[in-house]
Amino acid sequence: MELIRNFSIIAHIDHGKSTLADRIIQLCGGLSEREMEAQVLDNNPIERERGITIKAQSVSLPYKARDGKTYQLNFIDTPGHVDFSYEVSRSLSACEGALLVVDAAQGVEAQSVANCYTALEQGLEVIPVLNKIDLPTADIEKAKAEIEAVIGLDASDAIPVSAKTGQNVVEVLEAIIHRIPPPKPRDTDKLQALIIDSWFDNYLGVVSLVRVMQGEIKPGDKILVMSTGRTHLVDDVGVFTPKRKKLDKLSAGEVGWINASIKDVHGAPVGDTLTHAGKPAEAPLPGFQTMQPRVFAGLFPVSADDYPALREALDKLRLNDAAMFFEPESSEAMGFGFRCGFLGMLHMEIVQERLEREYDLDLITTAPTVVYEVAKTDGTVLDMDNPAKLPPPQMIAEIREPIIVATILTPAEYVGNVIKLCEEKRGVQRSIQYLATQVQVTYELPLAEVVLDFFDRLKSVSRGYASMDYHLERFDAGPFVRVDILINGDRVDALSLIVHRSHADRRGRELVERMKDLIPRQQFDVAIQAAIGAAVIARSTVKALRKNVLAKCYGGDISRKKKLLEKQKEGKKRMKQVGSVEIPQEAFLAVLKVDK
Ligand SMILES: Nc1nc2c(ncn2[C@@H]2O[C@H](COP(=O)(O)OP(=O)(O)OP(=O)(O)O)[C@@H](O)[C@H]2O)c(=O)[nH]1
């Protein structure tokens, strides 16, 4: 155990975590040059394409140090996006230390600050690493000053490196073995293993990444999942090197995978404790906060025939993604589909992309909504994740919306823009603090205002420099109303929105205008209305088509004609019928884009 070091890397997206991890793997001889390919830790092709890490993974590496001893380094990867910050804390809880990687040309970003605090709270040793020193814009002293001012962490012995060229990376390894303590020995050998992550493998079924806190775990052991009381036989145990390698056992202090023929990820819940059925530990380890889906949307197949395929695909995805939620939903406008819950917008986009790409499904996604608390006049409180299901106004005593506290870090020159954006999004300022080279602004903001386009807007008003982190604080009552969209008098239930009364008129108007541009002209007039209850707040009309589209081409240009027809066919693919009107997918997505 003296020779084991368990560590994580905390870094903001793009600061070079994967590149550094690859270098470390290479230095420890984990993979040959050919096998390195690109970044081995980003397994999922979508993660790789988007260059963001989502799932926690791990590697065990032997490192022969300058002192002549060979250490076992267990690196547990953490995701870098704000949607997935709960996964960071669970990766950290399996470690004794963490590297804080800061891009020396960019400085500290909000996400790393929050994750760094989590690490410090959990008692981890944090080693600051300044990356990208090969860049001419890198400023080591400034980055150090920022770490000290913003995080309050001593950065005098921060290690300057270039993960790209490999310069100084070996010093990081030496710091890991000297500065991060080995796992603490326990005085009992009763098994306690913390499930850091579980995922579904097509060949093996559920594989769990565990940190053995005490005792040991071997193939053939009968293990007990402490929260469910279920027992399973362990088939195999091992580590990733990063290749999957079977071992005889995993011992106290180690991190590795186990496979115990559990059917789905819910059978091995993340944060749960495994122990021996015959000789159980007295108590489970402290678990993790369960993750609550915060953003909900309806997913509907474009073709009703795809409904069973969609269900199957969602079932499969859920095997891997314990944070995803879904249940059947039926909509008058959209037919049968599923109401799905996600951690945030990025999570939603990724799931949607996987369904379309890996399962070849054409989907329509309704506007995402947050979960409102609806207090009814009869004293009951509902969690409302679907505006179409809001009870009638006379039954509602109060609607409460989720409020977050956002911490934003920005260079001083953009602070005015950032404040303006927050105010526009109904934010209430809590504090503003000038630190070394950045400003830290804290705002209370309605989550509903944040989920749609806040990140994009924040990036654009700060030229990409501002970063943010947030946590849910409470629910606040407010004057919320449901805005319905009617097409030729039919309510499109899937387009209903819950909005703040003060934004309802503008929102309704924008929505109607946008829908008008997106609904193709038909053989008859199409009336589009936005309404609150029976009161129409905006209206518009798509005039009936008078001429055949092809008439414009004067019969001459065949290729142009063909193009037009093809374009129409394209458009047809993602259409939904509402009453007698066909609505393209973009019209539904317009709801997303309307600026609140
Ligand atoms: N010049 C230079 N570029 C680097 C260095 N380290 C990483 N990069 C580049 O920075 C970009 C981001 O690096 P990644 O390693 O993918 O970043 P990451 O933090 O893992 O990103 P996520 O996986 O999204 O969390 C890539 O284009 C790298 O090539 C470095 O030391 N110097």
From TrEMBL:
An example Gene Ontology biological process: positive regulation of translation
Principal location: membrane
TM ranges: none
Enzyme Commission numbers on file: 3.6.5.n1
Amino-acid positions noted as binding GTP in the UniProt annotation, renumbered to this chain: 14-19, 131-134
Matching InterPro entries: EF-4, EFG_III/V, EFG_V-like, EFTu-like_2, G_TR_CS, LepA_C_sf, LepA_CTD, LepA_IV
Record-level Gene Ontology MF annotations: GTP binding; GTPase activity; guanosine tetraphosphate binding; ribosome binding; translation elongation factor activity
Top enzyme class: hydrolase
GO CC terms, sorted: plasma membrane
Function of the protein: Required for accurate and efficient protein synthesis under certain stress conditions. May act as a fidelity factor of the translation reaction, by catalyzing a one-codon backward translocation of tRNAs on improperly translocated ribosomes. Back-translocation proceeds from a post-translocation (POST) complex to a pre-translocation (PRE) complex, thus giving elongation factor G a second chance to translocate the tRNAs correctly. Binds to ribosomes in a GTP-dependent manner.
Family statement drawn from the similarity comment of this UniProt entry: Belongs to the TRAFAC class translation factor GTPase superfamily. Classic translation factor GTPase family. LepA subfamily.
Protein name, UniProt field: Elongation factor 4
Species for this entry: Luteibacter pinisoli
Upper classification of the organism: Bacteria, Pseudomonadati, Pseudomonadota, Gammaproteobacteria, Lysobacterales
